[in-house]
Every structure is written in structure tokens, then in C-alpha cells.
């Protein structure tokens, strides 16, 4: 049996939910708006969820806003179960919206997440410093209109 055959139990997080609260998810945002279940600033670590307690993280239009992308990815890895899904949509660097929004802190390419993806050149070169033993397996990284769609699954933590 592979991790793809296992149905994981656990929490599903919708990070940066704002007004896009989803049923079946814990809807998280730093703004206390209708539909938000937990008010939390994702730049504050550690996040309030236990290690390996989450089976899926949905983070749409979040990654480009966080102060520390290394801490964000470390927390995603910490709270996700092994085999858990990290579903990120972020603006693609070649789109106007990437540079139009003054709150965007980074401009992502198809290789931005390679630092955390096991077996990539960026992971081999910089992973020890940036990923710290926290690796993911790539399921999909592709342009989706104005967005970059990123689907990763959590691999077990390696000793550092």
C-alpha cells in the first residue's frame, strides 16, 4: 500500500479563508470575518495545530503575502500528516496581478517550491539550509490562468 492508497483522517485547513469559507474545513484567517472558524496570523509561529494533525492544507492567495516563506513551509510540513496534501495557489510572476497588489512580498515561478521538493536541483543545493529536512513530493506545479497551482504531499521528516 502506498500513501496514495491511504485515506487520511484529520483536520482540513483553509488558510487565508477570508470570505471564501469552505464546508468541511477549518477556515482560518487573521481577519475575524463571517465564516472564519479560527482567527490566526500565519506569520505567528508555531501555529496552533498539533504536529501531524492535518490531512490537507488549502492556501489560496496566501503564500505571496506571508512575511517568512521558510517558516510558512516549515509549519505546513509540521502540521501535515505524512502523505498529507498541501494545495497552494499563488500569483505567477508573469501576471500583472503579481505586481499590482502592494501587499505581495514575493513573485513565484514554477521552481519556487523546488527548495522543498525532494530530488530537485534547488533542494539538493539549498534544501539543507532552507528546508531543514522538511521535504515534499511534487504532484503538480502548473500555471492556472493568472495563478500558479501547486500540489505537494508531505514526506517524512529527515534527521538534520
Structure in words:
With 160 residues, the chain is α/β, with parallel strands linked by helices. It has one domain (3-97, 113-154): Vaccinia Virus protein VP39 (Rossmann fold, 3-Layer(aba) Sandwich). The protein has three helices and seven strands. It has helices at residues 69-79, 96-100, 121-130; strands at 11-15, 26-29, 38-39, 54-60, 80-91, 136-144, 147-154. A seven-stranded mixed β-sheet has the order 3-2-1-4-5-7-6. Residues 1-5 have low confidence and may be disordered.
Descriptive keywords:
disordered N terminus; 29% strand; Rossmann fold; 160 residues; alpha/beta
The global form is: globular
Task: Assign the CATH class.
Answer: Alpha Beta
DSSP strand count: 7
Give the neighbour order of strands across the main sheet.
3-2-1-4-5-7-6
Number of domains: 1
The percentage helix is 10-25%
> Structural class from helices and strands?
alpha/beta
H/E element string? EEEEHEHHEE
Question: Hey, roughly how much beta strand do the residues contain?
Answer: 25-35%
Low-confidence stretches: 1-5
Task: Write out the CATH superfamily name.
Answer: Vaccinia Virus protein VP39
Provide the fold topology.
Blueprint: E1 11-15, E2 26-29, E3 38-39, E4 54-60, H1 69-79, E5 80-91, H2 96-100, H3 121-130, E6 136-144, E7 147-154
Parallel strand pairs: 1-2, 1-4, 2-3, 4-5
Antiparallel strand pairs: 5-7, 6-7
Summarize the structure.
Helices cover 16% and strands 29% of the residues.
